[in-house]
Design goal:
The complex is a heterodimer. By secondary structure, chain A is mainly beta. Helices cover 10% and strands 38% of the residues of chain A. The radius of gyration of chain A is 28 Å and the shape is elongated. The two termini of chain A are 25 Å apart. By secondary structure, chain B is α/β, with parallel strands linked by helices. Chain B folds into three domains: 4-122, Nucleotidyltransferase, domain 5; 125-285, 3-Layer(aba) Sandwich (Rossmann fold); 312-417 and 426-631, no CATH class. Helices cover 36% and strands 24% of the residues of chain B. In chain B, a hairpin with a 2-residue loop joins β4 (96-97) and β5 (100-101). The longest helix of chain B is centred in the middle third of the chain and has 25 residues, at 389-413. Chain B is globular. The chains are: A mainly beta, B alpha/beta. At the A-B interface, β5, β10 and α4 of A face β3, α3, α5, α6 and α11 of B.
Amino acid sequence: MAHIYTPGLTVTPVTIVTKKRLLPIPGTVLVGQSDVVTSENVVARAELPGKVHVVNVVNQLGILPEDLKDFMTKREGENIRKGEVLAENKPFIKWLKTTVASPITGTVETVSGATGQVLLREPPRRLDLCAYVDGVVVEVIPGQGVRIETACAFIQGIFGVGGETWGSIAMVAEHPEDVLTDHQLTPDLAGKIVIGGAFVGAHTLQRAKAVGIKGIVVGGMHDKDLRAVLGYDLGVAITGTEKIGFTLILTEGFGQIAMARKTFDLLRTMNGRKASISGATQIRAGVIRPEIIVSSPSDAVPDAVGIPGSAKEGVQPGAPVRIIREPYFGRIGHVASLPSDLTLIPTESLVRVMEIEFPDGTRALVPRANVELIEG
Amino acid sequence: MTGSAESSFGQDLKAHQTQSRDFPAMGAGATLQTIVATDCGSTTTKAILIEKVGHTYRQTFRGEAPTTVEAPFEDVTRGVLNAIAEIEELSGRKILDGEKIITPSGRGGDPKVGVDIYISTSSAGGGLQMMVAGVVASMTGESAQRCALGAGAIVMDVLASNDGRLPHEKIERIRSLRPDMILLSGGTDGGTVTHVVEMAEYIAAADPRPRLGMSYNLPLIYAGNKEARERISEILGKKTALTITENLRPVLERENLVPSRNKIHDLFLEHVMAQAPGYKKLIEWAGAPIMPTPAAVGLIMETIAKKQGINLIGVDIGGATTDVFSVFQGIFNRTVSANLGMSYSISNVLAETGLDNIMRWVPFSIDEQDLRNRIKNKMIRPTTVPQTLDELQIEQAIAREALRLALGHHKTLATGLKGVQQERSISDVFEQKGSGDTLVDMLRLDLIVGSGGILSHAPRRVQSMLMMVDAYEPLGVTELAVDSIFMMPHLGVLSTVNDQAATDVFVRDCMIYLGTCIAPIGQGKWGERCVEFSLAFEGGRAPLQETVTFGSLRLVPLGVGEEATITLKPSRQVDVGAGRGESMERKVRGGVVGVLLDARGRPLQLPTEHAARIRGLIDWHKALNLYPFSQA
């Protein structure tokens, strides 16, 4: 590769983030260009088509599909209430009459002369799309949604579960190496985003749910605890829709790993402020990482600040990095040198490496692929 | 089982592609001197340069760059240009004029300027994702699935009248999936129309939306009972971009998948690709239709099998998915195990196979929690590489399981047609064979071709060979090879333009023959005689005669292009392919690894006792010089 770039996670006190908020199906946009919105505001709305129910009328009446239309009391497109007669036969003897009642309130969608089935649809459900972040609407995409821009502190995690939520930050850990424990999760933390240190276990997460905590941010957790929380073994890292009662963000990875000092210190300065967080993670093309967004007044943002992810430059000597694979997994240091030649590593693979210097002054050669830039 | 329609797929596809669109360079196949080809993968765009050197084509340079379909670039051509720019740097050939590819070559009389044709495959943005529907799950449902898979799609779900789901569950599923395309089949021609019309009604009720974009209707191919076409048009004509083609199962005894596959490729280009960022430009640049990556790989696999008249299994193990291709008795099949892979989906391999199955390949002990955390960390940081030997051994253990599971999945779909009445002889009755048996016969398998990072880039080639042997447990005599730098997609699409160029590069630069595995069938006590073999080499090398005992591996070096005659005399209960206790003599070919005699028994059983298993693994690794410590 001619270009050496090791993607990293952004941890920055000031930046501008733009969020595209799109409906899953066409609908109505409720805000206008330049409108100021807060995370709770509904910015767009759609009507999700109601659930479809299939009624096999021909079987119930003992008739042929091609005759079905003659026995229907309701036509396609008509409204119907639950229990109302949908179709009936016309016997000579009145008490032999059979009727088919509607199992739902909705509309008659299809009456099929081919299959003898009648499809009924429940009324549409309203889908409200919230702004998620406090900011300004910078673009309206008619019928689909908006783009919202916010000046903020922006922290990306490495993995998360649970969807979008917001609340005020409660710094519970005193040090990045701390383990979050049950007794730290007091009832006054309900509705808040709790910042732990290096680790959280399944038992503490149960307590978090019971207390009503909205979000937890920690360095790491064990895979077995994730299984316990989810109730299944997560096979593919596509998350964000889990209903576990809170949103969980790991900043470092799996295992007990101290939160990077930069992340920890930044979160500490944000203590008590409102944050929007999302656990959604997608580690394939179009990577999505979990995020913590703390919006700030726009005049606090210097002009030169860019949007994370748009200005990718190569790793330079001196850059802070995190090692993301054994045998140095989780250690943080800075780039000492970037040897250009391919280097033979213990597996006998020839790879490009970096020389990393750790805070204690020791150095190690690490494949460039196993190093992550701490951006921001 | 009838496979005539399938067996002509390659030719039909080429013919179809040359007819279906007006690509200027298609007729110029014989005059091509330089070709640049790309594969736009979900993470990396890989470019290769092919040049005619004397009378043969060779792959000369390669470049790669991150794929740029997603934000912030949202234009696939950016990654293509970057990958080609890398080739420019390495080769000294000027291929780009600003943001355009210079065609043909020799502009201004300079032979080092331009290329004669640009071609590409694509699996970017998740590839082609389809939902298929049939009436009976094991009949038209399966045929539709085979059709979509063969066209290079990932099948998100198979809906059928008898799939056990209630109607509203089917409708919810259709609505929530958001595929790129739907293939609806069902009913034989002239048969009942009710059930396939019912499926159409469910699709219409779901009003499915395409994955990419909101402004167009979802492409839907109807390839079912022709008597139902009118009703299908009434039901789906306005709600979908409906295309009607020949029934893919016109009679119970025959599949006719080619017309539907061709339609899938057309719609892939016209609808799906046209919606993906930058693809309109890419389609304009390309001198041949852009193919889904797996379809191109399948095409080249099928071509090899046909040209050499062999049965083969090909595998492409990637980060997210594992594709398996097979050609048995001339019948091509492909499956994709969407969540078996070595990075994004690595955790799912663990979930599916269980920890014990992974650990049985690892020659040391490791704490379960530590291993589980390591696997999850690989999942969330998929681009990392093993730095230590134990990490490499763990990854290769997981690869064995991913390969094994994916082949198991493949065997269930690469079958004869189900529900077909067969004439039976008395011997068939005793064998208890039914319709729908798998076509994958490991004893009749001639060649295994491996592809994907973990196989193509293993530090020692013998590691690739043993991974495939452990996972697939070939029986009798089987050759093995790997794709050197994953250029099979490029060669697949190239074969539709210039067969000679594709064949030349495939033989000389793409395939790395590892050697031949000889695996006697049977079980025995470790240390007892399994088979006696003698090898007569060409060119004056002294012959070799040895006895291999149960539980052992023996590797005999035999170089690339070399052949030897092997005589096998198995023990009474052992079968080397000629029957129990029967001797056999045949030619075997060498490779970069050599001839591997695998006397560990079939089915392969590892010792259950922990220390014995580790001892066994270490012995095998030493016998093959598998890892650096093996030399000690």
